Amino acid sequence: MKTKLPQKQKHEMVKRYFNGEPVQAIAEDVGISRSTLYSWINDYKAEAGYKEISLQKFNTTLRHAEYLEKMVCLLQELCASTTSLKERLCYIETLSSEYPVNLLCKTFNVAKGTYYNHTLRNKRENSQFNQKCAMLRPIIKDLYDESHQIFGATKITAILNDRGYHVAFATVSKLMQEMELYSIRNGAKSYYEQSKRKKRENILQQSFTASAPNKVWVSDVTQFTVKNFRFYICAIIDIFSRKVVSYHISKNNSTQLTKTTFKKAYESRHPDNDLLFHTDNGSNYISATFMKYLDSLGVKQSFSRAHIPYDNSVCESFFSSLKREELYRYKYPAVAEFKRSVEKYINFFNNERPHASIRYKTPNAYEKDF
Question: Is the pTM of this model over 0.70?
Answer without folding.
Answer: no
